[in-house]
Design brief:
2 strands, 296 residues
């Protein structure tokens, strides 16, 4: 159950399994970078082929879509009992942020889109269906009865959510996310990562840009909507080049992976329960979706 739903801006979350790279320092190292410079650190130009240690304790994008679809299906089925035809609002698509956990790493993408993803720039937002207020009240539980029929606590969506999320340990929900941010903060304070940031910053200054860390660059420039301007694109291209030149991705990801491994060891029993919860949650979602198909 892998996931790619990581925060990029302001937290720069990452966790890469050590030794998982298809690249090695001997195979793919830019000039000036050698094994002796960073002992135990693999050279990585991007994160495309890596698995994060804590990914096994979170829903993948596909699994989260399945859970959302199951809640929608049960909500619609409940509303049908009130003679209400429900068309769910389209869920926001989960962008594949796996490759952008540390910002841009593809020079061609940076040149075309700056710090913005091509999918976000090109995406057309679907039209949201209009919902009658009385129907919305039944869906959300704003009324207790509708046409002399009792509305479930929390409305149809509340009933649907309780069904799909039944048996979950509420106290453990979000544990993996919290541990990811903990490891991320520890990595950013680590001397090895700070050294890589400093080298990156010096490289950027040589190209005419003044930023202390890659986080500073992407936080400020990717905040707006729409397409990137030429200034943003220029910074993003320089960012990618300086990351590659100084193995920022390799250092940062390897260090953060180590911290994630440590927090996994410290919370092994709780995380085992989290995995059991995820399996149960997906089973509930699959059952809701399959029963809906058989009822048609």
């Amino acid at each position: 159950m892998k996931t790619v739903k990581y925060s990029v801006i302001g937290g720069a979350v990452a966790a890469i399994a050590l030794g998982a790279s298809g690249y090695s320092i001997a195979q793919s190292s830019p000039a000036g970078f050698s094994k002796s410079d960073q002992p135990g650190i693999t050279y990585r130009a991007n994160l495309d082929d890596f698995t994060f240690p804590l990914e096994n304790y979170r829903l993948s994008d596909a699994d989260q879509r399945k859970v959302n679809d199951a809640v929608d299906a049960l909500t619609a089925r409940c509303l049908q009992g009130f003679a209400i035809n429900y068309i769910p609002n389209p869920h926001s698509e989960f962008a594949d942020t796996h490759s952008r956990i540390y910002g841009v790493t593809d020079e061609a993408q940076a040149k075309s889109f700056g710090y913005r993803s091509s999918a976000a720039v090109q995406k057309v937002t679907p039209q949201t269906p209009v919902e009658v207020p009385q129907h919305a009240a039944v869906r959300t539980g704003a009324v207790r009865t509708y046409n002399n029929k009792a509305v479930p606590r929390g409305g149809c969506v509340g009933e649907a959510s309780r069904h799909v999320y039944r048996g979950q340990n509420a106290s453990l929900r979000g544990l993996a996310d919290g541990l990811i941010f903990q490891a991320s903060e520890q990595a950013q304070r680590d001397d090895r990562v700070r050294k890589a940031f400093s080298a990156w910053s010096g490289c950027m200054k040589g190209k005419g840009f003044s930023y202390k860390t890659p986080i500073d660059a992407m936080s400020g420039l990717a905040a707006g909507d729409g397409t990137a301007g030429q200034g943003e694109k220029s910074v993003a291209v320089a960012d990618v080049q300086c990351k590659k030149q100084n193995n920022v991705i390799g250092v940062w990801s390897s260090v953060e992976a180590g911290y994630q491994d440590k927090v996994i060891s410290a919370h092994r029993l709780d995380l085992k329960m989290v995995q059991e919860d995820l399996r149960s949650l997906l089973a509930n979602a699959e059952h809701a979706l399959s029963s809906g198909k058989s009822a048609r």
